[in-house]
Amino acid sequence: MSSMLAKRMGAKKVLTLINNAAYVDLVQGGEIDIAISPQQATIGSLLTHVRRGDIVNVHSLRRGAAEAIEAIAHGDTQSSKVVGRTIGEIDLPQGTTIGAVVRGKEVLIAHDDVVVESGDHVILFVIDKRRLRDVERLFQVGLTFF
């Protein structure tokens, strides 16, 4: 509440720490610029270690109903299901969307004609959590890579 008051009184940027999950809905889309939830940060950190493939970041969305995943594409066209293919050619599981591809310092908004290269960071949104294993398999390289 103090962050919202500070913003209304003229603060250019406000940051708030959310310890009560019930307040998350108040903050989303509101006046607060940055909201930090230790609970959500911890969940994301744990999910990063649990996921298979080269998963860099995982963020739980919609109170755990969906996930945003940052995965690194490795391999070549022979050993990977994503490298060397356009986003339109990738057989994404149902309920999964690629939002962007980060290549070095460049961010490419996902279009069907964007080709995924080895070393790219792919940002995915997974709405159907039953499909997470399928998403992880997409970013695992085959034995021919080694």
TrEMBL record:
Keywords from the named record: Ion transport, Transport
Record-annotated RCK C-terminal domain positions: 56-141
Keyword Transmembrane helix attached: no
Stored PROSITE patterns: RCK_C
Keyword Membrane found: no
Pfam hit, one: TrkA_C
Gene Ontology biological process: potassium ion transport
A GO MF label: monoatomic cation transmembrane transporter activity
Name by which UniProt lists this protein: TrkA-C domain-containing protein
Originating species: Halomonas daqiaonensis
